[in-house]
């Protein structure tokens, strides 16, 4: 009887939080995954490590409490590292808060106007090309960080400068040691999946950082470690001078790039997370509002921008999370760590964090997707590759714009399929039948075929099979009909579309 009463009491006690045990366990897993990534993204972005934790805390607690995607986890993302590094270098750290604040406000506005769903209309090849380009730039930049040297500013210079950096590294024992720590970190992350299941309860990235930290401390390795300023010391709301940058067109372009990329990455991540579980589906406009609220708070605090992060989100789902409580609790654990153990960050070797980011950058490059697209749709594969190369060669914003333009051009080209069939029975008029969609994109090919028809025979051009005939095409066909007719021959007949 007592056991029965205990069971009933237990059920009543958990009625308000029926999945608390699963969510609590999942939150610890996500915290352990997020901790090294928050710190690594911040260091790679050229800002104090604590700012990465601030963004992770806001992403967990503020964004986590809001509706949208119940199991998706937000925080600082490797995908924005390149943008943040460039923005901080160009406008300074105080201006970062204004950029992130403006990004958040734009996201709030777009969500309120129900524009969130439209981000799903962005070509997947452009998004994957964007992530691939980011991944390449991250890898190139973090290889320099692993060697303890300063990376060149542009993506092309980073890649072209690698041979010289490698030669210089071979002549320095300290540089080789730093590279070894970074390479060892990558090896641990990759090989950790082959460890026994109990060991894999600790995420590979955290295990790699802990091992690198322990090795550096025990053997007194000559490697750089994270600089610590304290949580309150790094929180600096943007001042009036930073807001003055809003008059700078380049600054506005950077804000738009942050907004486009952060929103697209978050909503594409939401679609991917929805495929991992059977729970409630993402409400895209509300998710965009949640991301906007989080970025607004991050901007006020002068922290890094946030996006939904697929690595943390998938870890959350795999760990058995059932409600948004798991992501909120993960933010609480980050806050507790930042408040109680900030000095622990000073022990972490920077080459280890570089190794974590190299691995994260590698995961952003969709090798299998490119191969599959090349076999089935080379046009989409070309868009993906050109977008990635453009980001490396030019910059993030212009690279994405190039990809979007290519995607629109390809779509227009695909939509303008037209077939021109010429029937010549030897006697009577020559019959030309146009079917499909006749647009200016296909006009040169149509005119080449029509102008090759003999001018001393009557011709009937049947347009009734066309689904669409744009103004440029109609005008060109009428002009051809007038020019093609010669004296003594019946004029070209156009049968109406």
From TrEMBL:
Membrane topology: Multi-pass membrane protein
One Gene Ontology biological process: transmembrane transport
Keywords: Membrane, Transmembrane, Transmembrane helix
The organism's place on the tree of life at top rank: Bacteria
Keyword Transmembrane attributed: yes
Cellular-component GO terms for this entry: membrane
Transmembrane parts of this sequence: 24-44, 51-71, 77-106, 118-145, 165-192, 204-226, 246-268, 288-311, 331-360, 381-409
Pfam families, per the entry: Sulfate_transp
Subcellular location: Membrane
Major location (coarse): membrane
Domain SLC26A/SulP transporter residues, every copy: 20-387
Protein name: Sulfate permease, MFS superfamily
Species lineage: Bacteria, Bacillati, Actinomycetota, Actinomycetes, Kitasatosporales
């Amino acid at each position: 009887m007592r056991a029965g009463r205990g069971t009933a009491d237990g059920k009543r006690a958990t009625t308000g939080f029926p999945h608390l045990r699963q969510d609590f366990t999942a939150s610890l897993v996500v915290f352990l995954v997020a901790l090294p990534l928050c710190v690594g993204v911040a260091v790679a972005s050229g800002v104090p490590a604590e700012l990465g934790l601030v963004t992770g805390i806001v992403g967990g607690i503020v964004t986590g409490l809001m509706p949208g995607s119940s199991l998706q986890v937000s925080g600082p993302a490797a995908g924005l590292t390149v943008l943040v590094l460039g923005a901080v270098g160009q406008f300074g750290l105080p201006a970062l808060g204004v950029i992130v604040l403006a990004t958040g406000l734009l996201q709030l506005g777009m969500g309120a106007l129900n524009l969130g769903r439209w981000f799903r209309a962005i070509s997947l090849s452009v998004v994957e090309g964007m992530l691939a380009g980011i991944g390449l730039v991250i890898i190139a930049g973090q290889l320099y960080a692993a060697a303890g040297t300063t990376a060149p500013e542009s993506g092309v210079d980073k890649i072209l400068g690698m041979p010289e950096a490698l030669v210089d590294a071979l002549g320095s024992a300290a540089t080789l040691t730093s590279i070894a720590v970074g390479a060892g970190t990558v090896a641990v992350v990759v090989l950790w999946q082959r460890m026994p299941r109990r060991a894999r309860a600790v995420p590979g990235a955290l295990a790699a950082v802990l091992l690198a930290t322990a090795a550096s401390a025990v053997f007194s390795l000559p490697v750089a470690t994270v600089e610590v300023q304290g949580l309150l010391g790094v929180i600096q709301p943007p001042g009036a001078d930073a807001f003055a940058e809003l008059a700078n067109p380049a600054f506005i372009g950077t804000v738009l790039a942050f907004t486009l990329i952060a929103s697209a990455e978050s909503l594409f991540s939401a679609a991917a997370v929805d495929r991992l579980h059977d729970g409630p589906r993402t409400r895209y406009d509300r998710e965009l509002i949640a991301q906007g609220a989080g970025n607004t708070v991050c901007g006020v605090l002068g922290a890094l921008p946030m996006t939904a992060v697929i690595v943390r989100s998938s870890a959350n789902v795999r760990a058995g999370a059932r409600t948004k409580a798991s992501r909120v609790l993960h933010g609480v654990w980050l806050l507790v760590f930042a408040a109680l153990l900030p000095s622990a960050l000073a022990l972490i070797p920077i080459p280890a964090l570089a190794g974590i980011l190299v691995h994260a950058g590698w995961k952003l490059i969709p090798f299998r997707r490119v191969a599959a697209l090349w076999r089935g749709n080379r046009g989409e594969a070309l868009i993906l590759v050109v977008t990635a190369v453009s980001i490396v060669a030019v910059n993030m914003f212009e690279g994405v714009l190039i990809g979007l333009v290519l995607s629109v051009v390809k779509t227009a080209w695909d939509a303008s399929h037209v077939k021109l069939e010429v029937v010549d029975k030897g006697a009577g008029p020559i019959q030309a039948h146009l079917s499909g969609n006749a647009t200016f994109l296909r006009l040169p090919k149509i005119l080449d075929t029509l102008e090759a028809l003999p001018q001393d025979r009557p011709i009937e051009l049947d347009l009734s099979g066309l689904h669409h005939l744009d103004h440029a095409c109609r005008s060109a066909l009428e002009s051809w009909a007038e020019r093609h007719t010669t004296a003594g021959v019946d004029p070209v007949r156009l049968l109406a579309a």
